[in-house]
């Protein structure tokens, strides 16, 4: 099945580049509201599913035992930019469990976001694992192990009890079989499993509705989603797309990006769940797609609709600030 | 016409992302040796055609008048990383013409390459136009104007005599009609014209062979191509793909990237000219494609063939240095 062209990048009066994509929206019962492309094909959710991977932190009681609030829970679901607040919060999470960054298995990297990187270059000799965009998730993993009495060493491995537990949760939520066959290694070294985009959307839907989940899981899921919506800066950072999406309608939109062009989102009040993947892995395409799909569910003329539509079709400027072209979703997303 | 999938990105045992592309190889007579995708569709060459845009610098006599050697000519054809040598050479070019960076119309930006950006952040308050990846091209433009007695002010504009001259050269080389209809504004504010990929490849072929060109243009073209092959660091920079490609077989490969997934290359000794475009604008796809096409024209088992093949199919590591997947060209490029 050919995935349709969902995003175009123009220059002058011509289309310069084209992105193909797959997209799905499901309702509270998991029924398809909108679909484009091969939504049954396996997609690695990458960081888009961090809220699912953070469930043990809450379900185990670790989050309560260590006194974590919305910021810590949002950071556990985050791909953050490595800004000072992100780094300090991850360090504080580890300290609460009596640990430090030496236990983190995510590796270190400079911020992927230019303004933050410039500041880091001026203040750091080199980045640590706390600066890794996944340090909140990994700190949550360590805290979960410490609280349950599991040895955190090797927590990123396929066979570690924590990853086994996460695998069972992901299978439960997405309805997909997860094994070594559809497992890859993520940027931060933990397992990532390819699941059909429709399964990913239905899984996120369950996080919002609690439908079919044990009460403890339903409560933990809603608490994590609410924490992200309450503290969107801690899910991403300054000028980041996830943060901006959630700021469009505070408390009404949950959104999380993943590497290689994945984006998931929720409108919890409407029981709607969204998932998109750019065939080629382009973040700019995934961002435009998710914004366009979200916009459709706000009233035309509302501030939310206007802002989201603007995030799905926006001008591009060059080094002199001149308008040179536009990134815009195609009519495929309005069918 | 659907463009074929030319590059796949794997993770674990699965394909995570797919790039479609168009590619063409022509011989010294401009005949098609290989073709994939819609090579008659208009493509903005962007920075890939800088060697064409640098022709007036040599043809006008400016390069000789100002004593420019291979490094200056390579920099005039470059999308450099803003390393100190690049910046100093652009400044020296302007100084030779009695000008300074205040005349540049390219705008300023931090280096797009992380290691250079970190060094810039530690040593600069902010970047200037000399740090712009196009500063060599723009310095060449200014030098051309100064030598011919043209006022360089407004040299980036569609109607400036220099851009009119470049438009005529590009039309001559590519065989395409260039007008406001297929004109866009490039990142550095000069006009860029969409031309069929096949015209771009044939135009580059003429640079190498001189076929059908006035002697002065043929000589200027060969001098620029030779300068780039002699000083590949000045065409891009440390660890950059253009530089590495030209270092594979010194004096035998010319290669130049352009934004939004364009790559052009020459094997002058074989009279072969190459052009590729990733449909989605991805640089990683264009790089793999051009390396694969070049590899086919070196003997299997040779060091050049091995290195180029490795640049067309290579592993990807995560933050911990673990192998997580592969970027690889598909069989489409070996049809």
UniProtKB/TrEMBL annotation, chains A, B:
Molecular functions per Gene Ontology: asparaginase activity
EC top class, as a word: hydrolase
Statement: the UniProt record of this protein carries the keyword Hydrolase: yes
UniProt keyword list: Hydrolase, Plasmid
Keyword field contains Transferase: no
InterPro entries: Asparaginase_II (IPR010349)
Domain of life, per lineage: Bacteria
EC number of this enzyme: 3.5.1.1
Membrane-crossing residue ranges in chain numbering: none
Record-given protein name: Asparaginase
């Amino acid at each position: 099945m050919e995935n349709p062209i969902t995003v175009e990048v123009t220059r002058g009066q011509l289309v310069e580049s084209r992105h193909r994509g797959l997209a799905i929206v499901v309702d509270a019962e998991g029924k398809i509201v909108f679909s484009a492309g091969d939504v049954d094909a396996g997609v690695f959710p990458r960081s888009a599913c961090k809220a699912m991977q953070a469930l043990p932190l809450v379900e185990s009681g670790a989050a309560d035992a260590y006194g974590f609030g919305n910021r810590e829970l949002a950071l556990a679901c985050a791909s953050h930019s490595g800004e000072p607040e992100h780094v300090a919060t991850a360090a504080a999470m580890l300290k609460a469990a009596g640990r430090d960054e030496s236990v983190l298995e995510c590796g270190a990297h400079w911020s992927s976001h230019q303004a933050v990187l410039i500041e880091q270059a001026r203040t750091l000799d080199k980045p640590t694992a706390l600066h890794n965009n996944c340090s909140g998730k990994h700190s949550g993993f360590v805290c979960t192990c410490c609280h349950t009495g599991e040895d955190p060493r090797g927590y990123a491995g396929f066979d570690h009890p924590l990853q086994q537990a996460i695998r069972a949760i992901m299978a439960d939520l997405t309805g997909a079989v997860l094994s070594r066959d559809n497992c890859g290694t993520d940027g931060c070294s933990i397992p990532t499993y390819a699941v059909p985009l429709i399964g990913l959307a239905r899984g996120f839907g369950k996080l919002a509705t609690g439908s079919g989940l044990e009460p403890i899981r339903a409560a933990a899921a809603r608490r994590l989603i609410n924490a992200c919506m309450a503290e969107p800066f801690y899910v991403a950072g300054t000028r980041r797309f996830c943060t901006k999406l959630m700021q469009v309608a505070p408390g009404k939109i949950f959104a999380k990006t993943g590497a290689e062009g994945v984006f998931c989102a929720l409108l919890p009040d409407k029981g709607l769940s969204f998932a998109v993947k750019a065939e080629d892995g382009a973040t700019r395409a995934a961002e435009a797609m998710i914004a366009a799909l979200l916009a459709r569910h706000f009233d035309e003329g509302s501030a939310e609709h206007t802002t989201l539509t603007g995030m799905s079709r926006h001008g591009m400027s060059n080094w002199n600030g001149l308008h040179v072209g536009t990134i815009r979703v195609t009519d495929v997303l309005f069918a």
